[in-house]
Amino acid sequence: KIPLLIDTDPGVDDALALLMAFNDRNHDIVGLTVAAGNVGLQHTVRNALKLCEVAGRGDVPVFAGASAPLLHPSPDAGYVHGRDGFGDVGYEAARRHAEAEHAALAILRLSREHAGRLLLVALGPLTNLALALKLDPTLPQRIGRLVVMGGAVSAHGNITPTAEFNVYFDPEAAHIVFEAFPRFDLVDWEAVLVHGLLHREVDGWLSADSPRARFYDQISRQTRAWSAERRGERWHSADALAMAQALHPEGAVQVLERPVAVELDGRLTRGTTVVDWLAHTGQPDNAAILMAYDEKRFQALIREALAAR
Ligand code: BDR
Ligand code: CA
């Protein structure tokens, strides 16, 4: 089995991605490292622990990490995910607590224990990963594959006109990661936009008779309603698409390799991912950008993850 480490900020779509990972037979989840992002760290850690419990995966260690971006404070996305990040349904906290080890240190330790084999999937702001890189710049040499959910490759942002939330929340961290890794998979917001899920199909999957589907139905209700009002009949689950590409890259229909950098200074464009589509810079291609993924496979992965017991 391939060892899988997930860096996350749950978050309703993070939760769906985690359920997909819990349901996968070919990967062995060695930990969840958690950062602030969608909501504050106390909530994202509490949510990660709860989701493990609901899925019967109390064996997966949860490591708390960065409580804020590296340099500048950033507004969270509580208006999308609920003030607690899980739809404000008032769930009872899991009985377990996070591990004592900091997420950045856990990333480094697990990268040594699984050197060359680790699949690292980053579903939130890249603060934990950037901290780990600053502590040990040789980290990329020990990572088998890195998959990042972030950016908007043609600058159609979801948080500013040009920037996507995960990169915008901590642009310096994204810059550090994009510079340090010679190659990573990028699943950006614009790929997510063309892989929307029909609400009426999602509603059907959520009616499955399983504790996972029941819990997910509750915590996602608020954000699905928010999305239906603004974006119409399709729901966009960013982290779920990233997890599909991480677990089943054979489902990718089109991937383009290009140099990607992060704008740190722009008056209007801070946090924007800048893709050198036409090879102006001479920079090496660092990102394998997912353009299209098999819709049927994506939907089946979600449906099965929700129905699993
Ligand atoms: C990303 O931002 C967060 O709100 C989601 O969890 C996802 O990781 C989408 O831009
Ligand atoms: Ca996320």
Automatic annotation (TrEMBL):
Which regions form coiled coils? none
Extract the GO molecular function terms from the UniProt entry. hydrolase activity
Respond yes or no to whether keyword Hydrolase is given for this record: yes
Gene3D superfamilies for the chain: Ribonucleoside hydrolase-like (3.90.245.10)
Query: Under what name is this protein listed?
Result: Nucleoside hydrolase
Q: Which Pfam families match?
A: IU_nuc_hydro (PF01156)
InterPro entries for this protein: Inosine/uridine_hydrolase_dom (IPR001910), IUN_hydrolase (IPR052775), Ribo_hydro-like (IPR036452)
Keywords for this entry? Hydrolase
Every copy of the Inosine/uridine-preferring nucleoside hydrolase domain together lies at 4-299
**Which CDD domains does the record match to this protein?**
nuc_hydro_CeIAG
